[in-house]
Protein: Peptidase S9 prolyl oligopeptidase catalytic domain-containing protein
Amino acid sequence: MANPETWLTPDCPPVLFQHAPADPIVPVQMSVHFAARINEVAGPGRARLHFVEGAGHAGPEFDRPEVVGRTIGFLKEVLRVI
Structure:
């Protein structure tokens, strides 16, 4: 019941994953697997996975303009705001 895959449905909302491949706390394979499962259940493209190279767990690399811009672009698209 605690596994988030338990609750996936075809109408789950879009999800953006931004993960550091070298994250020492959360293995990158967890995001790879979960994004793949979301896309299997809800359709291709429902989950998007981007790697933040050179970052650790929640490091300052996540504040880089391209990472923040990707997040803002995703939110604008999904929430349909200008």
